[in-house]
């Protein structure tokens, strides 16, 4: 496992300064400092990916750009005040992904399915309509629940089209996202063991990913569609 790579307090301090001075003049004057912190955080994300590949298969790691797309936003500040990276699991075979968000006072880990396509969302809902017992057993496993808490994500106010409003598992069927989120304190992020803690958290979500991979690569009869 990669080790000895940490997130520095200087990087969090820089993000705080950026939040207070979110304008092009300040950013350009401090771009060299930004590039230094960006490189350090990217090295951390690369180490997260290396660790994940010890027990999962990661197709790609993406570090998100600091520049905000303000075209359709009321908030016209040009820069994000966080660093973030995503780790996509191997394509059609595994599905889902991991996410790490570094922001002073608001850091978090996430894992699951943020924006399932229409076909995948329908497949998940049909599985839950047929029998949600294995799904519930999985998300309520003690270790997963201790680390990650409850399933979260956006959901419809009522039943999706074609599904019964009175279905006993409608609380799951109406979800549009199937994600777990773990909030992190600054002291956790700055800890010498943070890299290991991130990996342990991602390991704890594996039963959920295994089940979802199984659902999304089979039909309702359990036959492979790959």
UniProtKB/TrEMBL annotation:
Annotated transmembrane regions: none
Cross-referenced PANTHER family: CHROMOSOME 12, WHOLE GENOME SHOTGUN SEQUENCE, DUF2461 DOMAIN-CONTAINING PROTEIN
InterPro entries in the cross-refs: CHP02453, UCP028451
Highest rank taxon of the organism: Bacteria
Protein name, as recorded: TIGR02453 family protein
Pfam family, any one: DUF2461
Organism of origin: Flagellimonas marinaquae
